[in-house]
């Protein structure tokens, strides 16, 4: 099974220590964590006290420091996703958060409440679906990146060799990372989406795999994390890899069929303010070229040539962002970067989804030039991917996923023909059994990414599954309503949870003023109550009409004006009524 091959671990607890025991054959190592000194050491099984309480676990996610002290986070349940080149891939489905402290008597009432809130934040992130791991395979790298590594790299532990962009528990593992001798107990965990299917076309069986890797750099929720930061990290950056394994040969098309998705790489924001679609604001004083160049320098180094597909509207509130993006690409004047603007909503209005073929025809030659990665059954590299498409809309969710699934299909068509699975002249769309698997997997991928970022399933997934439908339009309306509520009234807590989990904010129990104790303005509570009371009185006056309609009308007008007036006051001061993050300073977010 190899250095990471333990099928599961045993967690032993005493009042003084945690003991984590590997259960693979012949293993004698035991990880000991001192609950008082927090010291981490290696020992052997005979040192585990017989009195220790024993529970099976499936991995250590890491440790985190909160107001009460340190906590150990472990994986307690897992689901098998499938096998990947004889490596088992798991989804973590449940966790335990274990306190080092045996009592909370050392905390004040305020500290107890803060610690409870921080624990709720950690549990909120853990309850978001999409944590994946393997004890024997590096999920953070693409096939092409892994093929270009040295023998020394292959000998490294999974934690040492992992692409840190996609290790979501990197901050939680920082203490274990500092001690190479305990790396076998430190499990890098991916956040995103993985699906694996055994498929058959023309009686030829192959494995088809889709992996979306969500970056932990500039991670967050929809409206509170936009654009890029000073280091060039784009918000909601997701690398998706489509893999085919047939008769020993492996083909890969990276970043969701050869592209990444990520926010428009400028300094801009779009803070919620109770409006359905807040106005995006471009920072007028920031050095956009510096962050923009950092972003694409990194992209080119990692992926090669860049073909940007910008799907935002070319009119209305999105127009300035499209123009600024195009201007920055032109100013950069790099031969490695091409820019394509495609107004998705304009081109496909009135459900004219057939017009997406305009974009597909436009990029066909570029896609052939970028190619894909292919290694034959003898391990020889037959083809390499020379670059990627970088797709974006405003959220990099709904429009982006539709385009990604179309480009992915075109790549897969070429790969399966080259591998001999598809006959000459056969179309992938005509393979109905596989097409159903393919469409549903891409729609599931869209939903997973959307729930992690926007809090709801993706829009337009009916097009991905079976073509645009009226029911799909209704579901989009429902999801949009849920997004509106979450974006305005719960995303502050969600953003704080992510920042705490990823280490963007560290708890200091000695802080004189807790960021969680920020007092709300009185109007935050008073005005909504006044509006509800006024509206209720208006309805009561209508239901309990007085002796004359003149008297009733006067009361209705009074309370109606009061409720409508209060509503507009709230709307005007919308930013004061939304649930805003409290842990990370505003300038860090923008």
Automatic annotation (TrEMBL):
Entry EC no(s): 3.1.3.64
InterPro entries (alphabetical): SAC_dom
Keyword annotations: Membrane, Transmembrane, Transmembrane helix
Keyword presence, DNA-binding: no
Catalysed conversion reaction: a 1,2-diacyl-sn-glycero-3-phospho-(1D-myo-inositol 4-phosphate) + H2O = a 1,2-diacyl-sn-glycero-3-phospho-(1D-myo-inositol) + phosphate; a 1,2-diacyl-sn-glycero-3-phospho-(1D-myo-inositol-3-phosphate) + H2O = a 1,2-diacyl-sn-glycero-3-phospho-(1D-myo-inositol) + phosphate
The SAC domain, residue ranges: 122-455
Highest taxon in the source lineage: Eukaryota
Any one biological process term the GO annotation gives: phosphatidylinositol dephosphorylation
Transmembrane segments: 524-546, 552-572
Any one GO cellular component localisation term in the record: endoplasmic reticulum
MF annotations from Gene Ontology: phosphatidylinositol-3-phosphate phosphatase activity; phosphatidylinositol-4-phosphate phosphatase activity
A Pfam family reported for this protein in Swiss-Prot or TrEMBL: Syja_N
Entry protein name: Phosphatidylinositol-3-phosphatase SAC1
Protein's gene: Sacm1l
């Amino acid at each position: 099974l190899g250095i990471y091959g333990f099928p599961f671990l045993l967690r032993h607890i005493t009042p003084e220590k945690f003991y984590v025991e590997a259960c693979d054959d012949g293993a004698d190592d035991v990880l000991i964590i001192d609950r008082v000194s927090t010291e981490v050491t290696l020992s052997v099984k005979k040192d585990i006290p017989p009195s220790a309480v024993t529970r099976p676990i499936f991995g250590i996610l890491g440790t985190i420091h909160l107001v009460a002290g340190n906590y150990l986070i472990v994986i307690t349940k897992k689901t098998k996703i499938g096998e990947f080149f004889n490596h088992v891939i798991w989804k973590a489905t449940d966790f335990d958060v274990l306190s080092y402290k045996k009592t909370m008597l050392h905390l004040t009432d305020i500290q107890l409440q803060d610690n409870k809130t921080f624990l709720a934040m950690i549990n909120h992130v853990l309850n978001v679906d999409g944590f994946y791991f393997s004890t024997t395979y590096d999920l953070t790298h693409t096939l092409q990146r892994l093929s270009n590594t040295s023998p020394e790299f292959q000998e490294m532990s999974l934690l040492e060799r992992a692409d840190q962009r996609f290790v979501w528990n990197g901050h939680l593992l920082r203490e274990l990372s500092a001690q190479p001798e305990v790396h076998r107990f430190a499990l890098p965990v991916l956040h995103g989406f993985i699906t694996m299917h055994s498929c058959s076309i023309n009686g030829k069986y192959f494995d088809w795999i889709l992996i979306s890797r969500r970056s932990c750099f500039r991670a967050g929720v929809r409206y509170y994390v936009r654009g890029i930061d000073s280091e060039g990290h784009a918000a909601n950056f997701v690398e998706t890899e489509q893999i085919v394994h047939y008769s020993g040969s492996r083909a890969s098309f990276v970043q969701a069929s050869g592209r990444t998705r990520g926010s428009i790489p400028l300094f801009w924001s779009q803070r919620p303010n109770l409006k359905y679609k807040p106005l995006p604001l471009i920072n007028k004083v920031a050095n956009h070229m510096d962050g923009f160049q950092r972003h694409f320098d990194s992209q080119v180094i990692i992926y090669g040539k860049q073909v940007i597909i910008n799907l935002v509207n070319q009119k209305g509130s999105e127009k300035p962002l499209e123009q600024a993006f195009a201007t920055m690409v032109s100013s950069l004047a790099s031969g490695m970067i091409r820019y394509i603007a495609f107004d998705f909503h304009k081109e496909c209005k009135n459900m004219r989804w057939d017009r997406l073929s305009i974009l597909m025809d436009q990029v066909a030659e570029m896609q052939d030039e970028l190619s894909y990665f292919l290694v034959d059954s003898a391990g020889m590299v037959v083809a390499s991917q020379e670059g990627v498409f970088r797709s974006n809309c405003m959220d990099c969710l709904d429009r982006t996923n539709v385009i990604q699934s179309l480009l992915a299909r075109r790549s897969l068509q070429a790969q399966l023909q080259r591998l001999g699975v598809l006959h000459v002249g056969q179309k992938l769309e005509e393979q109905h059994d596989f097409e159903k698997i393919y469409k549903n997997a891409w729609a599931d991928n869209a939903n997973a990414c959307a729930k992690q970022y926007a809090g709801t399933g993706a829009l337009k997934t009916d097009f991905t599954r079976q073509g645009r439908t009226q029911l799909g339009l209704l579901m989009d309306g429902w999801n949009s309503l849920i997004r509106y509520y979450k974006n305005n009234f719960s995303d502050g807590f969600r953003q704080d949870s992510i920042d705490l989990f990823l280490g963007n904010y560290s708890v200091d129990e000695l802080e004189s003023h807790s960021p969680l104790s920020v007092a709300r303005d009185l109007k935050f509570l008073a005005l909504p109550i006044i509006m509800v009371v006024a509206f209720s009185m208006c309805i009561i006056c209508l239901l309990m009409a007085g002796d004359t309609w003149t008297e009733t009308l006067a009361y209705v007008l009074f309370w109606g004006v009061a409720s409508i007036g209060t509503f507009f006051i709230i709307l005007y001061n919308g930013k004061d009524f939304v649930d805003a993050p409290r842990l990370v300073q505003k300038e860090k977010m923008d």
